[in-house]
Amino acid sequence: MGHDPAAALIDREGLVVAAIEEGKLGRSRAIGGIPRAAIRFCLERAKISAGDVEQVAVATHPSHSFARKALFRLRLMPLAPIFSAYYLNKALGELGRDMNNLRILREMFGSSADRIITFDHHLSHAASAFFASPFERALLVSLDNQGDGRAGIVALGEGTRIRELSSIGFPHSLAWVYTQVTQLLGFPTRAQEHKTQWLSLGGEPVFADVFVEMLRRAPHGSPHLNARYFKNEFAGRLSFRDEFYRRLGIPLESLSKHSTPELADPLRMNIASSFEKACELVLTEWLESLRGQTGAKYMCLAGGLFLNPLLVAAIERHTNFEKIFVQPAAGNEGTSLGAAWLAWHQAQNRRRVAPMKTLFWGPTYSNSEIKQVLDNSKAPYRWFDSEDRQIEEAAQLLIAGKIVAWFQGAAEFGPRALGHRSLFASPWAEYAQENLNDYVKHRESFRPFALAIPEEDSAEYFDCSANARFMTTMGRAKEKASKLLSSPTSSFVSKEGLTRLQIVTLEDNPLLWKLLKRMGEIGPAPILVNTSFNLFGEPLVITPRDAIRSYYCSGTDALVLGSFQLTKR
Description:
alpha/beta; Nucleotidyltransferase, domain 5; 19 strands
């Protein structure tokens, strides 16, 4: 019920019926509190009322969260009394807010005390990954900024039970340092940390040793921040000490209490690259040591830190786990799934269900509903009476260099567009990246776009793990792909040979799979650029009206909306 709230509903067979983030329905990325609209959607999808729900699981323990935060601030009180008093009072206010939200939930779903059950935030993260995975036994790691007063946990999942092994207390949070570095580089925090990871691809890790010294106490140990580099309050804007800026060559006179220093682009890229490499080193060594201690063959990852595909790819390469599963909705929204599965398995002692194969759990719209919106909007459109004709028309537009918006089926759960609410372009279209960046996405050129490819064709062009199915890792381009995807006007392969990748299966997304196959018949390869369908600063489109508005307010050339197609002249 904090930032990025969401709701998920599972049925009496343990299967996900619906799941959606509140921000997508409210058309804002800055929504918090009870996800009322998301709850309402889940109930409507299942055609039930609130009274029909057996149990409501919430991914937070308010009292535990307050106790941890209060204890941390009391320890800092002698060093930073004003800041500690402020954040102690803030934690008390958050406790009151969360307890009131639980009261409201009881009123919404019934007053029975056992109807509402709370689970620890990081335990919910771990459960969201383990119970979605195909593993019967696995090491579970959850890391984020600060969930319920902790930076993360290590646990062991066995069958339907999760046993916590160790805890990482705040401030020893790599994710929190990520927000600090993000702010240092001039990006808004808690919203654009992904820019830091992509900026790192253009730099050199010349300061990696500084960050490694900052982030760990000993080789192969858990993340542990070096107090030498941080101010006593561990909060607020840029908590780095002067020693940190000196080591990075940033003039102290450029610092201000109310702004971030102006850094040259090469320095910004080198800082981002250095921090990324340091995180990779610290995490991979620590996770590998955990593998040896637990004897686990498999590992599941969740928490906001693992929304970073570069970090996940490094963990896959430099640890010796047989298989790794990353929860695609690794951020706070995914804890709604984890809490529901915890209630299912641990509170009700139910059996495990099949591994998660899809994230298409959001709103879906029939052609008649889409037509009503199109007619109401007075938008000119064409109707396709066959799927083959629809795919052929879209493929011809893409081959001609057009940017095509794609609105099909149920919306995706999680932060990534996986082919139901996507923008497509041909990677061989002249200036494809520039057109998407400048006229549609309005974003920086250093941020890469993902490539979608059918599962059975992927091995010919890329090396990748099964996590590419949900775009949670990076693929490594083979020589054939490197030659095909590099041109004077665009490049989808980094200097290290990495590329963002989505593996598409016929089972999960038949329409996109057929479109990719058709692109392979009339183009160089069955590959398309895939990026999210949304306006700058907005969440992924959800409704037909969202799609039409985003289409006309951007440089998108065409929109395929159900069985309808709109094009601009």
